[in-house]
Amino acid sequence: MLRKLLVVSLLATSAFAMSCDPDEKSKDEICNNQVDDDGDGLVDCADPQCAGMAGGANGELCQSTESRCNDGFDNDGDGQTDCLDTDCASSTECSNTETICNDGQDNDGDGETDCDDDDCADATNCQAGSEICDNEQDDDGDGDVDCDDDDCAAHAHCATAEVCNDGSDNDGDTLVDCQDPDCNGQPGPTVETISGTCQTTESNCDDSYDNDGDGDVDCEDSDCDTNAACVAGEICNNGIDDDGDSAIDCADPECDGETNGTGVVCESVETTCDDGDDNDGDGLVDCADSDCTAACISAGDLVITELLKDPNTAADNKGEWFEIHNASALAIDLRGLVIYSMTASSEATHTITSANPVTVAAGGYIVLGLSSDTGENGGVAVDYVYTSLAFSNSGIDNVGIRTAGGTVIDVVAFDDINYHDFAGMSLSLSSTALNATDNDVAANWCYVTAKFNADEYGTPGAANPSCARETNCSDTIDNDGNGDIDCADFACAFDASCTSAAVPTASDLIVTEIMINTGTLGLDYEWFEVYNTTSGPIELNGLTICDSDATQYCFFANFGASHALAAGSYALFARAGANLPAGVTADYSYGTALQFADTSDGIQIFAGASLIDAVLYDGWAAIQAGASIQFSANATQNATENNSAGNWCTSADVYDATNNLLGTPKMANNPCAVESNCADGTDNDGDGAIDCADSDCVGVTGPDGVACEATETTCGDGNDNDGDGDTDCADSDCVGVTGPDGVACEATETSCSDTFDNDGDGFVDMADPDCNIGATVDLTGYRIEVWVNINTTPILGHTMNLTGNYVKGKYIAIVRNQVDLAAWGAGFNPILTTAETENISEYVTTADSWQPNGNDSDRVRIYDDTDTLIDEMEVPSNSVKTRQSDNTTLIQQTTAGAVGAPNSVTGYTHPIYIYEIGEAGTGDRLTAFQSNYTLIYIPNI
To answer: pTM above the 0.85 mark?
Structure first.
């Protein structure tokens, strides 16, 4: 029976006690990872599901037909880009011709300008060698001047360009750095912390820098003889701009180290940050000066107040962001501070650097993110763009900010238990807890119902609301400070003063129809239907609706006012209401907040923290492309019966003739077929369940002549009453119930001396491996040999001598050319599971000695401690041979790994035997090296 997931309401103000384990979200096709995630043979933008989604590394848009013809990206995934794609033949970008080849413009819109455009190949200024390489002019109009132009690559002037700040004569003209006219206007070398710009003739005569590299600085240089700064030098203590450079006293670099008229020691950069003086004359004193940020900031001055770990509408590497609040009384320039994200295994850091101040006002907020492009980051106004940081969606992620010296200003340890990660919802610190102590308490964080774009929730850059909910919904006061008053507040949706409809309780609303697989139309055609099972109206405003994915997608059904669903009526929730045909209207459009996986997913409806209904599907036969699945009209309409796959069937009615979609949105469902004969071994209703395995047959006589049961409760009659293939004590339903021997059934045999088969596995007492756990056998002196080329020239490829005690019930793996067990298991496709490898107690690699001739048979032998051959198995090439309990062997093309070896083999009494050999198999899961192996089993008897 399908189990309902229990999660806590997103609106809860207490700690988020969530049970999901979020990971990088993956729903159907992920559109920018170069992998066919949904197995339909179409990758990324080639998959119609990706139409309208971000597909490229930089967020380029996937399209069903290429219409963006100058973005350098294959939008429809057909292997042709921009004008090479026939879809673009009539576009402006691809139909015009570049005619002006020296104006620096892309005249035909094809992304190529002037001489870079093939249309200009015959233009005079585009001929090779037309650039003059030492006149500081763009002679050929290609946007590149002198040595920057490829035409000048071999010109003597450009053989080696001068680097202007390395103290070397790079171009061999005997002139170094600012001495070289090539460096005019370029940054020169830093000399004793002072930097400046190179000039052919010194004209910056008060910057304390030798701009022309002649050894003379400022007024010492004869070039400055007539400069105002040198004719009348700055007097540093008279409050006058003596040299006319608009810098007075300490604001003038000439006064560095001098004392002004009030006894202040002048500094070109404020480094004395506690003397109450404006040492650098910029009008900012001590900690108000950004030069003093690192010296003045204290722990708790900055507080992390909001974070979006898992964006929904943008890619993670574009849409992640977090918010910092300045809790101090002074503006703070963040430059020089370090932000970081630290998990259990690694730390990523970024030092905030910028030519301009990165200032957060006292009491203000600033948003730091991975992209400032609102077209690709989800519409967030990002104040500073960082690199190298990526938030973890699982485990603990310590997000913090510290000084360059390591002093932590604030850090919050976001884990996936107390801070559950919901896609598209930021975590917000309550407005009543804006300090670095309270933001360590999970109960002070919550999700807000305000949206910053059409589908995502948060308040980036704005004051956070309180996590306390609106307490009075009729006093015309915004009690929780979120900007919504009384009934306009989502928290008041179910208040008696805001709705006359009933607040939903469990089973009042049930999911009755879901459009899961739209075929080739993409996610925007998805929808689901909800039915009111009661005799009165039920309130829909205020619901929280989620899917069942590990990284949950949820949305708040915020209608803005009461929205009641009449008794016995249907409501339609659609991803994009505009894609519904005429005559079908959605009650609520949830945008990109949900997207259904075609095989395994679900819908959960909450009112506050109360689960109203959940439908979780997993490989249901009713799910077909282009058709909804609907809950049968002849089933009892409640939240229990709609859990059963047998009560759902594929819709057969056309509701959208244009797109040939089947379903009955907002209309009564049809009855699904039921199992008409519960004892004929046939799936009469086509739901994939036969006879007693079909829920339709509960209480009806089954193939054994007794009534079918939903779960096996009659555990001593020798019948498979629930049709799951397990009888009596072998059925897990019977644990604790009296079995055929008159004693209680056990999940595993623990009563090992009562002469009964308590767990129904065919083994009694000590013959049952469950009763022999941990037993060992001494195999000292035993030997395993691997022989190759059996049909030509047999070669002993490997010998393994055993010594000591080996645990019974375990395997020895001898494998060709894989360094360890993990590498071997990973080479299968799909890889071996933990269950398929965890029983291997010893792993041995033979390097390449296993297969001198890959087209011949192999043989494995076991000798006991008397050197007597006790077991032998030979396998032909390109095969896997597996021993069966009757001592026969099965030749196949796959493996089940280290599971399933029989504990006893007919006629075999030795404590070790050859279970399986694989030789260069080419079938399911096997690759060249992984299929050269043998599994030796030590029976648990």
So the answer is: no
